[in-house]
Specification:
6 strands, binds nickel (II) ion, Peptide Deformylase
Length: about 170
């Protein structure tokens, strides 16, 4: 947080860039970072590359993301979100780019995402609940937005230690 690149609107990937060695290398770097961080999603601007690409990987089994269906590592290129129902629910969010903090954010809970796969194929996915929140958080990074921008009640912005003590 504070790096200007995190606040830029990232550029779409051109079709002739998709599947190239440089994009593959970017995804590899992002996967390494995601695994080091222990998160479930990461956007390219978070590793210093201002392009519209994000990855999500949701492990199976009992995790702190219990509400989420598992998802193998997936690459989302030039994603677009359609809100199918504007009704919101809130979750505590955290972010690799905002270390040590958690904040309660309300977002629509029924969305459709349209995107290109790592091979450039058009894909669609309908998401509900916390999964809808996860993807909105990740794709916000492509528009220069962080979850702290979406907090409405700053009494619900906390350090991780206080989050675990008072809000978990
Ligand atoms: Ni984030």
């Amino acid at each position: 947080m504070g790096h200007p690149l995190l606040r830029e609107v990232a550029a779409p990937l051109a079709s002739d860039q998709i599947g190239t060695e440089s994009v593959r290398q970017l995804v590899d770097d992002m996967v390494d970072t995601l695994h080091d961080y222990g998160g479930i999603g990461l956007a390219a601007p978070q590793v210093g590359v201002s392009v519209r690409l994000a990855i999500v990987e949701i492990p199976g089994g009992a995790t702190r993301y219990g509400e989420l269906a598992p998802m193998d590592l997936t690459v989302f290129i030039n994603p677009v979100i359609d809100v199918l129902n504007p009704a919101t629910s809130g979750y505590w969010e955290g972010c690799l780019s905002v270390p040590g903090l958690r904040g309660f954010v309300e977002r629509p809970q029924h969305v459709r995402i349209r995107y290109l796969s790592a091979l450039g194929e058009p894909q669609e996915l309908e998401l509900r609940g916390f999964a809808a929140t996860v993807f909105q958080h990740e794709f916000d990074h492509l528009d220069g937005k962080l979850f702290i921008d979406r907090i409405e009640d700053f009494g619900l912005l906390a350090f991780e230690r206080e989050y675990e003590r008072y809000h978990l």
